[in-house]
Design goal:
Elements (H helix, E strand, L loop, with lengths): L3 E6 L3 H13 L2 E6 L2 H11 L3 E5 L7 H11 L4 E7 L3 H9 L4 E5 L4 H31 L10 H13 L6 E4 L6 H11 L7 E5 L5 H9 E2 L11 E2 L1 H4 L4 E5 L6 H13 L1 E2 L8 E2 L3 E6 L3 H6 L5 H7 L2 E4 L9 H17 L5 E2 L1 H9 L5 H15 L4 E2 L22 H15 L4 H8 L3 H10 L6
Parallel strand pairs: 1-2, 1-3, 3-4, 4-5, 6-13, 6-14, 7-10, 10-13, 15-16
Antiparallel strand pairs: 8-9, 11-12
The protein binds adenosine-5'-triphosphate and magnesium ion.
Magnesium ion (MG) binds next to α7.
Length: 449
């Protein structure tokens, strides 16, 4: 471990030298100063995370020095030395931001060490917290990933932990919970941020097209290939490849993807030249891949490759508190966009929003608020503006609890039937992607009645 820098400021030479001697032996890089003024002059060079400061010194007092040091380095942890019996001084120092105090003469050196160790930890914690929340704020600008619920804080923490590594991440969770947002945040926080995040929706392409999209092709590789084209693997080189809806990837492509993951190289269609790759893979799915594996539609060797780290997105109903926070941000965003001055939602509308069960998650909330902002005639969104939001069965009578998937199946079927199986419209109403709807239709085996 590198030596921790430590400032010792005391006008009494004996005490100063004793502390310096002892603490250097204990592995600190000690910088001693006989006055606050001298310490301040040099602090820019030393910039230690820790300081031991005598309170009573001629010239600049310890308290003044403490304040000035904290101006230069807000994270510095200062341990103050006070004369025996001067509790007020100690209290004043703590109030001014000192970490702790010791009474002079310092005799209990174990206690000193213990306090310094705690101060080191404290410093590390505040710095990390500051850095993390700054970096989080950078990549999650307020209009981006919103959520302060414990569930979302856990997600954000996971993101900041995995982002710097190159590990493959699988993002799971129901439709509209923000999986793509998470993928983008991981990339933005990673060392690859300067390079591209290339996204491809595996459900959006038929099998052969998916292959040529991913691998690229040489001129003449197939009919219509009148010029060579780079695939997404190549485009993502040095950066991140986001494979969305990985659960929809056809088995033959799964094998090919697995090979790329193992060999870190590809060949364009129609070429034998091997192109080396340096990519990080992030995947997302709203399908239960374990079930898909059990059914044989998803390869388990690929699953284990992709699932090094999983981030499971909680459905919106499990993020108490976030609904109104998201609502507020969405109202702000959409009213700015269309130039209306809307200040928020009224209390009836808020209650409805909080009690609703959000099958379409954040995307549904986003859509509903956008519509409400357009519709409303007042400066606050009211219950009437929240079209499409109805609470069912709130009589308090015991309801039969049905599995969520059951509800989802019925809800989708109902919507499709109502809209005469217009998939585009139905996906929009449900607040999910059209491909997600297709996948669900397949999953639930839905047919026109
Ligand atoms: N925490 C959040 N804060 C702000 N906006 C969010 C949040 N989560 C999701 N959104 C917004 O909701 C919409 C859906 O998010 P996203 O596309 O990331 O979901 P998804 O999980 O990938 O959905 P699907 O499975 O249908 O592809 C987007 O417009 C996104 O910006
Ligand atoms: Mg998505």
């Amino acid at each position: 471990m590198a030596e921790t820098k430590l400032l010792v400021v005391d006008d009494e030479a004996g005490q100063r030298e004793m502390l310096a001697g002892f603490l250097s032996k204990k592995g600190f890089e000690v910088h001693t100063f006989a006055s606050g003024a001298r310490a301040l002059e040099e602090y820019h060079h030393v910039f230690s995370p820790l300081a031991i400061v005598d309170m009573k010194m001629p010239g600049m007092t310890g308290l003044e020095l403490l304040g000035k040091l904290r101006e230069i380095n807000p994270f510095i942890q200062v341990l103050v030395l006070t004369a025996f019996g001067s509790v007020e001084t100690a209290v004043a120092a703590i109030k001014a931001g000192a970490f702790d105090y010791l009474t002079k003469p310092v005799e209990n050196l174990d206690e000193l060490l213990l306090k310094l160790e705690k101060a080191v930890q404290q410093n590390r914690l505040v710095v990390e917290h500051k850095v993390m929340s700054e970096r989080l704020a950078e990549v999650f600008p307020t209009s981006e990933m919103i959520g302060e619920s414990p569930a979302m804080l856990k997600v954000k923490e996971m993101i900041s932990l995995v982002a710097p590594k190159d590990a493959t991440v699988l993002i799971t969770g129901p439709s509209g919970t923000g999986k793509e947002l998470v993928a983008r945040a991981i990339h933005a926080l990673s060392p690859r941020a300067e390079k591209e995040l290339v996204a491809i929706n595996c459900a959006a392409f038929p099998e052969t097209l998916l292959e040529s999209e991913l691998f690229g092709f040489e001129k003449g590789a197939f009919t219509g290939a009148d010029r060579a084209k780079q695939g997404r693997f190549e485009l993502a080189d040095g950066g991140t490849l986001f494979l969305d809806e990985i659960g929809e990837m056809p088995p033959s492509m799964q094998v090919k993807l697995l090979r790329v993951l193992e060999e870190h190289k590809i060949q364009r269609l129609g070429s034998v030249k091997e192109i080396p790759l340096d990519i990080r893979i992030i995947t997302a799915t709203n399908r239960d891949l374990l079930k898909a594996m059990a059914q044989g539609s998803f390869r388990d060797d690929l699953y284990y490759r992709l699932n090094v780290i999983t981030i499971d997105m909680p459905p919106l109903v499990e993020r108490a508190g976030d609904v109104l926070l998201l609502t507020e941000k969405f109202v702000e965003r959409f009213s700015r966009k269309i130039g209306k001055e809307i200040t928020g939602v009224d209390s009836e509308a808020a209650e409805l929003l909080v009690r609703y069960n959000w099958p379409g998650n954040v995307r549904e909330l986003e859509n509903i608020i956008e519509r409400a902002v357009v519709l409303t005639r007042s400066d606050r969104i009211t219950r009437e503006d929240l079209t499409g939001l109805t609470l069912k069965g709130n009589s308090g009578a015991a309801e039969t609890v049905v599995p969520l998937s059951d509800m989802e199946r019925r809800h989708i079927k109902h919507c499709l039937d109502q809209l005469d199986w217009n998939l585009g419209l139905c996906a929009e109403k449900l607040g999910i992607h059209r491909n997600t709807l297709r996948a669900k239709i397949k999953e639930y085996n839905l047919r026109k009645s």
